[in-house]
Every structure is written in structure tokens, then in C-alpha cells.
Amino acid sequence: TRPIRIAPSILSADFAKLGEEVRAVDAAGADWIHCDVMDGHFVPNITFGPDVLKAIRPHTQKFFDVHLMIAPVDPYIEAFAKAGADLISFHVEAGPHPHRTLQAIKAQGKQAGIVLNPGTPASAAEALIQDVDLILLMTVNPGFGGQSFIHSVVEKVAQVKALIGDRPIALEIDGGVTPETAPLVVKAGADALVAGSAVFRGGPSAYAGNIDAIRKAA
Ligand code: DX5
Ligand code: ZN
């Protein structure tokens, strides 16, 4: 069995103590830290920007998986790269020049990922696949934590896995991931799982158990 990366989304953390929360999920066994950036324009919610990322960066050595739900994307890439992102992913729906955005992320020396909303077909990844390190498939409509997993996306996970073939590209899933839904997407080919509410529920003393439960189910 291949290793499955668990990426807690700090969207579900206590924003009043983000540094502590990041240290807590690090100690609880998180593989990556998933950072959800929302602009109130591409998605109907607003979270945080590069300065917040920079503030939490010293609290962990873990890989920062930065999910940009913003439009436009390109003017902000350098700021997120400098703030400490290891990988920057953006939505193919966010603009007409996704390949230019990939080039801009690579120019910063960072890994690059593309994200597909539930309503976007697998084929949207085809023309970009040679230049990405990660493909993220949304299993909720982006904007909020705690939504229900959209089961119809599971078929697309298998389609994108087939497109990836044996290329070294991570296939990540985001939205409604729980111990119940994790095995569905892992079976279809996912190797990285974002989880917000399923990790942060119950407070810091529950994080290790919550992460383990997803890992074991996967
Ligand atoms: C949704 C975000 C997700 C979200 C996941 O717009 O991209 O990362 O925080 O939260 P849960 O796991 O609660 O669905
Ligand atoms: Zn996300």
C-alpha cells in the first residue's frame, strides 16, 4: 500500500491561536499543513493572506500546502512563495491563463498544483499535466469547512488517476473527508487527503486520534 498524506486544513483551527494549533497538528502526526486562502470574490468567504502564513511559518517544519481560492492569482504568487509556501495550488477556473500561473509558481522555485471544482471535468487537467506536481480535486464546492462530501466526484478521481499514470504527481482530495469517505477516494487513486473539521473537532487532545482514524480508514 502506498503512503497516504494527511493534510489538516487550518481553516477549521482556532484562528485566535493559529501558531499553537499548527504545532498541535504537527505533533499529532499531520504530514502537510493545508492553508486555505479565500478572497470573497472567487469564493463566497474570506480567510487570510500571506502575512498570516508568514506568522505561522516558524511554528512547524512541515510542508505548507497552500490552496489559493482567489482570482486573479498571479499578482499574489510571489508574496505566498516568500511567506513560506512549499506548494502553491490554484483553481483552473480562476482565469484564462493557468499555464502562465504554473510558470510563475515554478519561477519562485515552488511546487505547483492545479485545483478542479466539483463541476469541472477531468479533461481540464489534461493540457497542464506535464507541468504540475499535484492535482487537487474538490469534493465540496469551495468556500467553507464542514460541508458534505460530494460522492459524484469519486468517478473523476479515478479518471484523473488514469491521466496521471505513472507520473510523479500527487492526487489530493479536499472537502468532506472523514474516516467514512477517505477509503472511497483512496480506492479511486488519491494519495493526499485534506481534512478540516474531521481533524479539528474535539480540540487539541483529539487531533492525534482524529488523524489516526482517517489514516487507518484510508
Ligand atoms: C473548502 C476548503 C477545504 C476545507 C475542508 O473550501 O478548501 O480545505 O477547509 O474542510 P472540511 O474537511 O471540513 O470539509
Ligand atoms: Zn482547501
UniProtKB/TrEMBL annotation:
Catalytic reaction(s) noted: D-ribulose 5-phosphate = D-xylulose 5-phosphate
Gene Ontology terms: cellular component: cytoplasm
InterPro entries in UniProt: Aldolase_TIM, Ribul_P_3_epim, Ribul_P_3_epim-like, RibuloseP-bd_barrel
Cofactor: how bound: Binds 1 divalent metal cation per subunit.
GO BP terms in the entry: pentose catabolic process; pentose-phosphate shunt
Keyword Manganese on entry: yes
UniProt keyword terms in alphabetical order: Carbohydrate metabolism, Cobalt, Isomerase, Manganese, Metal-binding, Zinc
Protein role: Catalyzes the reversible epimerization of D-ribulose 5-phosphate to D-xylulose 5-phosphate.
Ranges annotated as spanning the membrane: none
Sequence positions that bind a divalent metal cation: 34, 36, 67, 174
The protein's name in its UniProt record: Ribulose-phosphate 3-epimerase
Name of the gene this protein is made from: rpe
Family to which this protein belongs: Belongs to the ribulose-phosphate 3-epimerase family.
Annotated catalytic residues: 36 (proton acceptor), 174 (proton donor)
Pathway where this protein functions: Carbohydrate degradation
